[in-house]
Specification:
Elements: E1 4-7, E2 10-13, E3 18-24, E4 33-39, E5 46-52, E6 57-59, E7 67-72, E8 77-82, E9 91-101, E10 104-109, E11 113-118
Parallel strand pairs: 2-11
Antiparallel strand pairs: 1-3, 3-8, 4-5, 4-9, 5-6, 7-8, 9-10, 9-11
C-alpha cells in the first residue's frame, strides 16, 4: 500500500505560479511512473504530466512549456511546478503512482488538491 499526499494548492491569479508537492509513503524510485492528473468540474480526469523511473517526462499539450514535473527520490516527493497559469487550469489536481510488484501492477491516487486560477 502506498499513500500519496498532495499539498500546495490554492487560489492564484492568471499568470501566476504554484508548486504542487506529492509526498509518498514508499520509495518513489521503485515506482514505474509518477504523474499528475487533473479534473475540472463536469469533466473527466486527465493526465497533466508524468515521469518514469528512468526520468522520462511527458506533458499534455496544453501545459507544455508552462508546467514541469520533477521528483526528489531522497524525499519520496514528486513536484509539479506550474507557471503562466490560466483560468482553464482550474481543477482538482491528483497525484498518481504506478508500482509493479511480483508481476502485478498497482495504482495509487492522492486525495487531490484544488487549484483555482482567477482571471
Amino acid at each position: 500500500q502506498v499513500q500519496l499526499v498532495e499539498s500546495g494548492g490554492g487560489l492564484v491569479q492568471a499568470g501566476g505560479s504554484l508548486r504542487l508537492s506529492c509526498a509518498a509513503s514508499r520509495s518513489i524510485s521503485s515506482a514505474n511512473a509518477m504523474a499528475w492528473y487533473r479534473q475540472a468540474p463536469g469533466k473527466q480526469r486527465d493526465m497533466v504530466a508524468s515521469i518514469t523511473r528512468s526520468g522520462s517526462t511527458e506533458y499534455t499539450n496544453s501545459v507544455k512549456g508552462r508546467f514541469t514535473i520533477s521528483r526528489d527520490n531522497a524525499k519520496n516527493t514528486v513536484y509539479l511546478q506550474m507557471s503562466s497559469l490560466k483560468p482553464e487550469d482550474t481543477a482538482v489536481y491528483y497525484c498518481y503512482g504506478r508500482y509493479v510488484w511480483f508481476g502485478s501492477e498497482y495504482e495509487y491516487w492522492g486525495q487531490g488538491t484544488q487549484i483555482t486560477v482567477s482571471s
